[in-house]
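stage 2 :: seqdesign
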């Protein structure tokens, strides 16, 4: 019944996926941390986090491998975590990595307990465990992070630490001059693709879902990021920030096309 969630990418699909993120098979021949970091950063700079299918059209979100490939690679769209990290996991497996899905709770600096509504990936290389995420619509590590408690790790100007927050749970903190702020609470226990069906349904269908309330589009740039929240286009590049309100549907359509490479009817 759920076999299509487990379908693997073919060699041709993997090559097309790599091309989608600006890489070739030669860029991904070694299953080491340097190559994994290259894949993560390239993905974050090429494939936007976006909730347009949910926010604009109230569409169901399929987690089947073929559907994700068609949307993200063929149609050159983005998606949210259950889509992006699912297909990225399939790419890692196709490239020979030892990769496992994990589930997480989003904190974003807030205290309290929240439902597990985020998917990430655990990769094991040389006996070490690494956290990978290409599907978070905000601050996220631009490379793989060792899943070790207390070690401060830096990636492209951002610092992160993991703290033990319960049995089988780690908290990923973003560390700034103001201190450590929790981003995610990550469960270390392996998950199955079917385990994400229910949280995906909540995110795409529930009236309380944030994805149904606010338009979100986010894309990393090599020197910063560009993102849309609601009707405002934000830029943060080379340390300079700006914003512009998108007052018409045409302005929104143009921004999606020009800034994020997204071509959809609104």
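stage 2 :: out
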């Amino acid at each position: 019944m759920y076999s299509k969630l487990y379908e693997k990418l073919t060699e041709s699909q993997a090559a097309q996926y790599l091309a989608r993120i600006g890489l070739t098979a030669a860029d991904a021949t070694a299953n080491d941390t340097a190559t994994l970091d290259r894949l993560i950063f390239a993905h974050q700079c090429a494939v936007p986090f976006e909730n347009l299918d949910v926010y604009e059209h109230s569409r169901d979100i399929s987690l089947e491998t073929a559907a994700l490939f068609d949307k993200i690679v063929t149609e050159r769209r983005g998606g949210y975590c259950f889509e992006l990290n699912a297909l990225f996991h399939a790419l890692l497996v196709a490239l020979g990595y030892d990769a496992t899905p994990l589930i997480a709770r989003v904190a974003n600096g807030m205290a309290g307990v929240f439902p597990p509504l985020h998917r990430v990936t655990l990769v094991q290389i040389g006996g070490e465990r690494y956290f990978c995420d290409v599907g978070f619509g905000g601050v996220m590590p631009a490379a793989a992070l060792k899943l070790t408690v207390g070690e401060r790790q830096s990636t492209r100007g951002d610092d992160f630490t993991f703290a033990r927050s319960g049995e089988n749970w780690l908290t990923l903190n973003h560390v700034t001059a103001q201190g450590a702020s929790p981003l995610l609470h990550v469960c270390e226990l392996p998950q199955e693709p079917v385990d994400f069906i229910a949280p995906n349904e909540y995110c795409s269908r529930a009236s309380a879902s944030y994805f149904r309330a606010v338009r979100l589009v986010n894309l990393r740039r090599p020197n910063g990021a560009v993102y849309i929240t609601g009707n405002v286009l934000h830029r943060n590049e080379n340390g300079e920030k700006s914003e512009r309100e998108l007052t018409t549907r045409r302005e929104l359509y143009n921004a999606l096309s020009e800034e994020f490479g997204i071509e959809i009817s609104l």
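stage 3 :: structure notes
- The chain has eight helices and 13 strands.
- The domain at 3-260 is CATH 3.30.2140.20 (Arylamine N-acetyltransferase fold).
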